[in-house]
Amino acid sequence: MEDRLKSLGKVDIPAPSSQARDAALSAALTAFDQAADEKISIQTQGSGMGERLKSSANRNWRNFMTRNRLATSTALATVLILPLAGYLTWTVTGPGAPGVIVSERKEQPKAADTAKKLEQQSLTHEGKLKQDKAEAELRSEEQTEIAQLPQADAPVEAAPPAQLPLRGLNLNLKDSRARSLAQPGSQYGAASQQPVMRPLPPVDLVEPVEDRDRVQQVSDNPLKIVKEEPVSTFSADVDTASYSLVRRALNEGRLPDPETVRVEELVNYFPYDWQGPDSAATPFKANVSVMPTPWNRDTQILHIAVKGFDIKAAERPQANLVFLLDVSGSMNAPDKLPLLKSAFRLLIDKLQPEDTVSIVTYAGNAGTVLEPTKASDKARIMAAMDALEPGGSTAGAQGIEEAYRLAEKAFVKGGVNRVMLATDGDFNVGAMDDASLKRLIEKKRESGVFLSVFGFGQGNYNDQLMQVLAQNGNGVAAYIDTLAEAEKTLVQEAGSSLFPIASDVKFQIEFNPARVAEYRQIGFETRALKREDFNNDKVDAGDIGSGHTVTAIYEIVPVGSPAVSVSDLRYGEKAGEPVSASNEIAFVKMRAKRPGEAKSELTEIAVTDANVLPSLDSAPDDVRFSVAVAAFGQKLRHTAAVSDYSYDAIGDLAAGARGDDPFGYRAEFLKLVRLAGALDR
Description:
Radius of gyration: 41 Å
Helix content: 25-40%
Largest sheet: 6 strands, mixed
Oligomer: single chain
Shape: elongated
């Protein structure tokens, strides 16, 4: 081959002929025009754009070549440019090009054969080598482009969900592209014979994102007959998580799951100006009133409002806090770990210099990020917080054990020792089940280390477990969905969240059957206690923090009211009216322990006619507003008692009792009522 090439190199090249050049050029261009016209005539409508562009380019090229003599001064230039242009045109628009549908091949016209022969006769040795090199480069580039395309078994990254045009669709690029590439007629199919374009397979519907939120299913408190069950006993509850869950749902344009609506948590979310005790010698004080029910003219509301003693900042005890922070992969969302870090920065700013902070994280395995550190070393604490990144699975049980170890290591006698768990509730890895975690929390509670829970995010939020942990850890359960909520919970209400002034707070209400025929407690379904639990100091109950308020509401049916739903028994013994209690409607008893003490103290209040208000309008703003919130919670739970009471009526009652609203909480509530009314149609 090399010898042949060398011999060809010695061949004399004939002088270019202008007549041969013109003849070859004219014949070649005529052939291409004829071939293009035939191709266009067989195209399916709407798919011949490539052919029309080629035909136009050919005609323009012909005019240019025949008119511009400077560009065609030699035959050598003609034989080099013409084959290359023809090859490029064939590559772009010929068989195998994207978007082109090709019919069966036809024989070349005779004019094209003539042009081809003229080309072969005119090619020189040097021109042939250059053409071969150009063709090789073009084939190499084409193969490189094809190799870079996703193959049938290669993973294809789909667009993130936020970029999809429609929620609920799954653009499964990997599967659909693989099916397209595997088609026999596909451009890149291994067994492709004819490059016939096929439609892409239909877009797959996405499987809905699994909602693994867990909530405890609880039925509304039933109507009780006083002659049969005159006593109602329950534990104090100062949690507020339910309100935040309800707010998040409504702001997202959907009604909340009724199981997430705990009416007492909605009512106790708001700060109220109840009258509190005068000194720390009395941990709390109860305010009781009776008034007409806004949603039923034949019943009454028994309203019990309790406020704890408010410890001044200079007098509060030293705090030993352990932040137990979930940094698992499920926390990788803007409303989870980033919000968590911002929220706890607010709390750190609130602490006193002598307070102690530790940080434990859990993701796969628990780890200590920060050993007990004085709050005065704020820079070190903040640096540890800033370094947190999400990743791994969740080993919540191990994290809790490590957090309690650090809390006991830095234990402050006579102070506040508390683990503050912040998580989305996804305890999916660990040796402990929910019952084992509960027992661990109860055991550590006896040592003086309490537990509070702060929830973040949604999708796998275990509200049920968070409630159990907080209730058995003598702490609060809050749900933080915004930075404003974090500021409310961890800054404005830090005293009530961190510093208890009474523990194991229990309520017991006994109704006088001579005055009350029936009653129904609104909320507190998960806080119900047995009657005998009230005097048993070994039975755990809720805590009240510094300056905290607890509000309980009953709907009662007076004796002789048309609203009485159960008739007297024919053969039962009728209870006689106690002469000494003829003016009493009910009797309220409260038990609570002072911090660090094992024996509870009893407080008793008689509810008499002196506590009865003539009308709902005569009640204070805080009382009327709390009743409106109670109606709203029942409405969201689809409670039958308020089925005829509209959202507009609830909004009017709350708006008329808005009163002083420095932080805008009540204004926000009015907006939520309007949203719920628009959605619940």
